[in-house]
Design a protein that fits this description.
The structure holds two protein chains of two kinds.
Chain A lengths: L3 E5 L5 E6 L5 E8 L13 H8 L11 H8 L3 E6 L4 E8 L4 H12 L5 H19 L2 H13 L13 H6 L2 H11 L5 E7 L3 H12 L22 E7 L6 E8 L7 H12 L18 H7 L4 E7 L7 E9 L5 H17 L4 H17 L4 H14 L2 H5 L1 H6 L3 H11 L5 E8 L15 E5 L2
Chain B lengths: L17 E4 L5 E6 L5 E8 L13 H8 L9 H11 L2 E6 L4 E8 L3 H13 L5 H19 L2 H13 L14 H6 L2 H11 L6 E6 L3 H12 L23 E7 L5 E8 L8 H12 L1 H14 L3 E10 L3 E10 L4 H17 L6 H11 L1 H4 L3 H13 L6 H10 L3 H11 L6 E7 L1
Parallel strand pairs in B: 2-6, 7-11
Antiparallel strand pairs in B: 1-2, 3-5, 3-6, 4-5, 8-10, 8-11, 9-10
Classes of the chains: A alpha+beta, B alpha+beta.
């Protein structure tokens, strides 16, 4: 990776810059330390809604003009909200990177929350939620997270509950925006074809006039240890086959046990890279879950997920069953694989395979300015600068014994939440080519 | 109005790319790029689902899925073990028109990955037990699709908008009955007949030395000989229907309705391609989903997503608007979409939309071509449609030559509002 600088401006804004001169492009990101983690019941989904409102204009750049301005200069843009953060970016031909600074410094303080726009966005976000609800897998994911966490705010989904989306007011949104959208609660990241010294000067000019805000309220909740298995199920029509989702409490990014657990995820379903969202799927077909479930024709798909987060998170395991396979059989096979990891050390060849996957993912993450900016910004929020600097070293020094011990702790049955989606109306037992759960009616307008 | 006028630094120019024939009718393209010690390889075979025989719909996808499931030198798991031990990926994807094989590896493993790519394309063995594993996965996918509102709306749209003999009458995965009917002999025969050097393109981008790479490619691919003669069957012409076609699929257990509204569009090599692409940008892509986004999402708050897309390949794919809305808003959303299409026909450009779209298309080249995969994809498109390695130099003038009249003409000719199709999947 290219050299990276980290500067803290007088108002507390963290600025991370990495020059990459392989293509005449650059990307500008701003990350806010706010996400669904900072929400309480009654206002769930508010961080994501504020993100939507930041595309509704400021006194100097009207609604829709941000995106037009970026497109007009050949750029792409977007915003997204996750549990630990909200982020916005503009990727542009390098000579137009200044547009990113202009837009982000403007909307950090000057976003309009026009009451009519708040109302039209309410239905847009409810539509986003309803689109997700169409998917039984999503409904199960919400149930599993809500059961696995009793106390911590990670228990509710980023999109928020529908009743909260119906009730949140403009005042709630504005308060949330003013509380969290301050320079001292943000991280700027730029990667690309620029001179860091000059860009830092421009960033100072754009952002330093914005005064620091009060420190945002801390998230106080701490999830207590789980003392026994929890089970949930979702039964409804709309899915073809049963789905399993299992969740285990697992360490946060800064926990010393994070790296052994990251390798556990690799053993189970392929190593996914250092970032908060992981890299492209790799190593899947020779991984333990795939061999045990898909190769044995018990499932059509399987995987596991464990990503770096600010607070202790969940290690998740999932499977989509083949029609006609008994759910309890799949659950037993998955538990058997997890048990094996806590009883036997991972062998040298398997460990060497994972290390090579990790090195490869590390190299691939350097192709493209956007991917690099995601790594830098998200890990600054959930961990620290050291996380990336020492990532490969820490990973390579994990021993088979450490992995085994981590498996024994994480996959302890008292630490487990098991969720099943079971299709209603007998859809799971549809005989090939016979029953038609979807009916079609034709009418001419 | 700012105009993108800076000289373009293009990563694809005749002097930067090695382009060489590779056996009868195949072409290799190599672009050295030493920024990162990795290599991206993208191969394309014209063996898509448009070649599926009647009663065996889904055969092309099934064949493609089997390429990595056992070859002359590797079992399915043996191949997976080798790839996974290298930290490499080798993925095969098929659609109606073709099959792409995309591989990525560290530079130190490029020779081995090249060999594996030729192995999976040229020497798959179609083991019987692996066939059944894939069949189970494909059928489950089809069943899930029947209960997925987006997939169900898409299938209903295709079957109403295109005549039965046209490849776009259906989607590539086939139907449960046709996939059940596929035998091992069908897979072997499809592979022999349609995996042929004519039209095969392989693009290599990354930390490689062109001369050495070319030598390796020749060793691996030069002996490839076609089986039988190539056949070209032209699909029937597709155009607007004689009346508005409306299809409604109901699915239990759903909250949101998904809508597809459109017409058969234009092919990549059609003279309508450039004005059509800009019309599409203005209608439903530029900024936050173009005029559709501004009206249906932003003003009316009806939909989280509403966008248009013109699929222009070898064939004229659909030019369609897709949206997800609450079931009680379906009629309002359809009205809103039609209003914007009518608006595009009456007033093809307004408020600087044309220079915005042109500047976007020209300016975004740099961003699109930033990664190895982006360059490989562009090389493939240039070769498949015979655009020439200097295409990107000509591209700005092609884009800037599009006039408002041409946009209006294309929007009116294709989007016949007396013959469009609207299909939706709604909660039961």
């Amino acid at each position: 990776m290219e050299p990276t600088t980290r500067t803290v401006l007088s108002n507390g804004l963290v600025v991370i810059l990495r020059e990459v001169h392989t293509a005449p492009v650059a990307t500008f990101w701003i990350w806010y330390r706010v996400g669904s983690r900072n929400e309480v019941p009654g206002i769930t989904g508010i961080s994501h809604w504020v993100e939507h409102m930041l595309f509704k204009g400021t006194p100097t750049l009207g609604k829709g003009e941000f995106s037009r301005l970026i497109n007009r200069h050949g750029g792409s843009w977007n915003g997204f909200t996750w549990k630990d953060f909200t982020a916005y970016f503009e990727t542009l031909p390098a000579e137009h990177l200044g547009l990113g600074l202009r837009i982000e410094s403007d909307r950090m303080r000057n976003s309009l929350f026009n009451p009519d726009e708040v109302e039209s966005e309410r239905t847009v976000i409810i539509s986003e939620r309803e689109g997700a609800e169409n998917n039984p897998e999503y409904a199960l994911y919400e149930e599993v997270e809500a059961a696995a966490y009793r106390v911590h705010t990670y228990r509710h989904a980023v999109i928020g509950y529908k009743s909260d989306l119906l009730a949140i007011t403009r005042d709630d949104l504005v308060r949330h925006y003013h509380t969290y959208y301050t320079p001292n609660n943000a991280v700027v990241v730029a990667v690309g074809d620029f001179d860091s010294g000059s860009l830092l000067q421009e960033i100072r000019q754009s952002f330093e006039p914005i005064p620091a805000g009060s420190p945002p309220p801390a998230v106080r909740s701490v999830e207590p240890p789980q003392e026994g298995e929890r089970r949930v199920s979702v039964r409804r029509p709309g899915g073809a086959v049963p789905q399993l989702q299992m969740a285990f409490h697992a360490p946060a990014a800064k926990d010393p046990e994070f790296f052994p657990v990251l390798l556990l995820d690799g053993v189970l379903s392929g190593f996914k890279g250092p970032g908060v969202f992981g890299g492209a799927a790799m190593g899947v077909r020779s991984s333990r879950l795939y061999r045990a479930l898909v190769e044995q024709q018990l499932a059509v798909d399987t995987g596991s997920a464990f990503r770096p987060t600010l607070d202790p998170t969940l290690f998740e395991v999932g499977a989509t069953l083949r029609p006609g396979v008994a759910p309890e059989r799949v659950e037993a096979v998955v538990l058997g694989e997890l048990q094996r990891l806590s009883e036997e050390p991972v062998g040298p060849e398997e460990l060497e395979k994972l290390r090579k996957q990790a090195r490869a993912q590390w190299v691939y993450s350097g192709d493209g300015v956007g991917g690099q900016a995601v790594l830098l910004g998200s890990t600054e929020i959930v961990a620290d600068g050291e996380y990336l600097d020492r990532f490969l070293d820490r990973l390579m020094s994990v021993t088979p014994t450490a992995i085994q011990k981590a498996a024994a702790r994480v996959f302890d049955d008292r630490n487990r939440t098991v969720g099943w989606y079971l299709p209603d109306a007998g859809a799971a037992a549809v005989a090939p080519g016979r029953a038609e759960p979807a009916t079609e009616a034709a009418a001419h307008a | 109005m700012h105009n993108v006028s800076a000289p373009l630094t293009l990563p694809i120019k005749p002097e930067l790319v090695v382009r060489e024939p590779l056996g009868p009718g195949a072409v290799a393209l190599i672009r050295e790029k030493r920024a990162n010690p990795s290599v991206t390889i993208l191969g394309y075979i014209r063996a898509g689902a448009m070649h599926d025989p009647a009663g065996r719909e889904g055969l092309a996808l099934f064949t493609a899925a089997m390429l990595t499931r056992g070859t002359a030198s590797y079992t399915s798991q043996g191949l997976a073990e080798v790839l996974d031990s290298l930290g490499a990926s080798l993925n095969v994807r098929a659609d109606l028109e073709g099959v792409s094989v995309l591989a990525r590896c560290l530079a130190e493993d490029a020779d081995q990955i090249l060999e594996l790519m030729s192995e999976v394309v040229l020497r798959p063995t179609f083991p019987a037990d692996e066939i059944e594993k894939q069949r189970g996965r494909i059928i489950t996918g089809i069943r899930e699709g029947r209960l997925d509102t987006r997939v169900a709306a898409e299938k209903a749209f295709r079957s109403a908008a295109y005549p039965p003999q046209h490849p776009y009458h259906r989607t590539a995965e086939g139907e449960e009955e046709s996939v059940i009917a596929i035998a091992r002999d069908d897979l072997v025969a499809f592979h022999r007949r349609h995996y042929r050097p004519q039209g095969f393109v392989i693009a290599v981008v990354g930390d490689v030395t062109s001369a050495r790479m070319l030598e390796r490619l020749r060793t691996l691919w030069d002996g490839w000989r076609p089986f039988g003669v190539s056949e070209t069957t032209l699909p029937p012409q597709a155009g607007p229907a004689s009346s508005v076609q409306r299809r409604v699929v109901t699915i239990p257990g759903k909250t949101q309705a998904d809508i597809v509204l459109g017409v058969p569009g234009f092919a990549r090599l059609s003279p309508d391609f450039y004005p059509g692409m800009i019309a599409d940008l203005i209608l439903g892509r530029l900024g936050l989903m173009g005029r559709l986004g501004a009206a249906v999402r932003d003003q009316e708050g009806l939909a989280y997503y509403v966008y248009s897309q013109a699929q222009a390949g070898f064939l004229a794919g659909p030019w369609a608007v897709r949206a997800g809305v609450n079931p009680r808003n379906v009629d309002r959303a359809v009205e809103g979409i039609l209003r914007e299409i009518r608006g595009l026909q009456r007033e093809p450009v307004r408020d600087g939309e044309l220079p915005d779209a042109q500047n976007y298309l020209v300016g975004s080249l740099a961003v699109r071509l930033e990664t190895d995969a982006g360059i490989a994809q562009a090389l493939l498109e240039i070769e498949l449609f015979d655009l020439g390695l200097d295409y990107l130099s000509e591209y700005p003038s092609l884009i800037r030559g599009v006039t408002p009249d041409a946009i209006g003409t294309v929007a009116t000719r294709y989007f016949d509002l007396n013959g469009y199709t609207v299909a939706m999947a709604v909660p039961a």
